Structures
1.
Amino acid sequence: DTAVSQTPKYLVTQMGNDKSIKCEQNLGHDTMYWYKQDSKKFLKIMFSYNNKELIINETVPNRFSPKSPDKAHLNLHINSLELGDSAVYFCASSPRAADHSYNEQFFGPGTRLTVL
Amino acid sequence: GQNIDQPTEMTATEGAIVQINCTYQTSGFNGLFWYQQHAGEAPTFLSYNVLDGLEEKGRFSSFLSRSKGYSYLLLKELQMKDSASYLCAVTDSNYQLIWGAGTKLIIKP
């Protein structure tokens, strides 16, 4: 009965590889997000997907591409991985559209990505 | 630029009270959240403030002053399980959630 799930939990890979992280939510939420949390613990929004619209953070390199096959899934594909991509990636969902002030976010367990 | 400031780390004693402060400078304001994050786990929602004043929820309370760009999270009757990072986050005028770096709270017996 996990609300927001991510796979894999741990991902270790070589520089230059392409990898994907999957996210699914069974809460019926309209909005999903991808966050990156680096070693300094800053949570940085990467993308938000609002059912009809994908909002891209302009600071995210285009090597990162979100893919949403349906409202319950928002996967993250990363091309040509770099050392600086090592971080914990969190998927989250919220019940309302992104343009709503009270929009509690429910987080997945995180994927710890290590690029060697 | 947009900025959320919180102390990096705080230490408190089991059974005591601790106040974690958060100040923010953002382009607009549409609400402030507090989240708790245990080491190696995901953040979980604690509280939401959009109007000035105190919101109480059990042992935890959150206060907001919009004119001062200031909030605090008050934790009472501290328990060892309260050892975690506490993240302050503000929704700006574009409904983007801007996150602070978090305050690591260490509880000692």
2.
Amino acid sequence: AQSVTQLDSQVPVFEEAPVELRCNYSSSVSVYLFWYVQYPNQGLQLLLKYLSGSTLVKGINGFEAEFNKSQTSFHLRKPSVHISDTAEYFCAVTPGAGANNLFFGTGTRLTVIP
Amino acid sequence: GAVVSQHPSRVICKSGTSVKIECRSLDFQATTMFWYRQFPKQSLMLMATSNEGSKATYEQGVEKDKFLINHASLTLSTLTVTSAHPEDSSFYICSANRRAGDTEAFFGQGTRLTVV
């Protein structure tokens, strides 16, 4: 079985400061890893994904994440946040090919303070 | 990109009534759509997989007679919450893949259901 833990439910950060949103997962099989963002009153949008290859993955809007197999982590980072990054961020995993059966974390609310 | 539209975005209904939520893929055909539910401060949980032209596959613990799923066309899946009760109040969200095995799922904007 798969599970995802997002330890931080809320992360406030000042504008132009760096941010890291933490994600840890557990799985008995190899997984694909995803970060989704949800802006107010909108659906989930894919930020980035790790399927294989380079463990550092770059996504949209200046975000990146690093897959660490030994620590079973997939933390999301951005060196300098903007007000527009205020949103809910979800880490998710799926076992094997396809985006079926996505297992989500509980989400992290990022609030960027002017 | 692919667009998935969900309607309504918010609905309030009386206990005992039924509510239908629509999920449409606007610019692609989706043979498979997925329905999730999210309770406050909890993860999105997969409820069921909706297959066009066939019966939905429900996750363990999800009552198929209570949460009726119909996937009558390649662009529309509906979730009907029958005889809704306050404990059914939740955030319901659908997703669809453009192709089988595609690694990216496209999500609707979700429906906030409140049963009073």
3.
Amino acid sequence: DAGITQSPRHKVTETGTPVTLRCHQTENHRYMYWYRQDPGHGLRLIHYSYGVKDTDKGEVSDGYSVSRSKTEDFLLTLESATSSQTSVYFCAISESTLIGSPLHFGNGTRLTVT
Amino acid sequence: QQQVKQSPQSLIVQKGGISIINCAYENTAFDYFPWYQQFPGKGPALLIAIRPDVSEKKEGRFTISFNKSAKQFSLHIMDSQPGDSATYFCAASQTGGSYIPTFGRGTSLIVHP
């Protein structure tokens, strides 16, 4: 596995509470991504980063924010968790945007919002 | 708008059979088509990929067939094994443009022994 660590691996939280998920990489890759995976919806991009302090929105960014203060860390924050944000969250990294540069995924964080 | 449509959603195959998963795309600017394989409790991992300048790519028991005019591509798993049981995602991306892959919704493959 590429050097990607997601924490926590599992979390249960209550509606309305803030939640932060962490992605840590040891590959020194420039590009980092947050996806959510839901049955019937596949993988949907939440936010991505193309460098330290450089981030942009994906297709399902509402209710989420991100920060990247160091190359190795990409944080995903749910400002006020809702039940619709119950999902499995995957962090991914890539070395470049050149064709053939694959995404390497972490093993996910399962988040349950009650 | 779903840019990459994947079917079937689930697939059950007997050991030794052929598994076929299909994808169709809308954006003719896409020029890279990877497939990812995901085992339970793990993140997806790149399995095989193709560019539209070839119609087929084979790696072991896995083959991608590509039809540029129909804007379709498919994954064939020959001699399917129980260890192939996983979720498979097709994806598409565009060099210099939408470089972040757009994923299909996934196919859950079960291979019975």
4.
Amino acid sequence: AQSVTQLGSHVSVSEGALVLLRCNYSSSVPPYLFWYVQYPNQGLQLLLKYTTGATLVKGINGFEAEFKKSETSFHLTKPSAHMSDAAEYFCAVSDPPGNQFYFGTGTSLTVIP
Amino acid sequence: KAGVTQTPRYLIKTRGQQVTLSCSPISGHRSVSWYQQTPGQGLQFLFEYFSETQRNKGNFPGRFSGRQFSNSRSEMNVSTLELGDSALYLCASSVSQVFYEQYFGPGTRLTVT
């Protein structure tokens, strides 16, 4: 069965520091990969996605992620954290590609001023 | 273009009652998926509809049902509510049955007392 693992349910970073949120998946073939962000009392907003092509994908708000097939990972990064980045982040895979979504358990990001 | 809308946004029901939630997808989107989000279980897939047909179903009891209308609007129904059904119910829409991405609504917060 497909599984998505997000290491660290809570991550704290200082404002201006690097943000690194980890996501690993299990699949025999490269799935489609996504990162979503959820602010309090809101739905999920798509940050970025990987379907095919370039393995380094850029998203909104300065975030980017790199698909590494050999490591079955899709970690989310941002060079410099802003206070407005504080939210819940979800990694998701679509497996088989284009089919049902499976979500990780989420990582709550806190940004310390 | 308007986003995914869900009504109502908040709902309080009593155990044993039934409830119907509504979702209007983005114009032109034909696929609608429903998810249950709870602090303990995270995001769990309920079911997905495409062109009025249920295409996929998650592992939920038969008390959870849904349908999709010809205009792609979707409803989900929960009968005989239990305390454990308290959750944020999220609807997501996609252009086609191939999920290159999903767009989420703000959710309906259901509280069962």
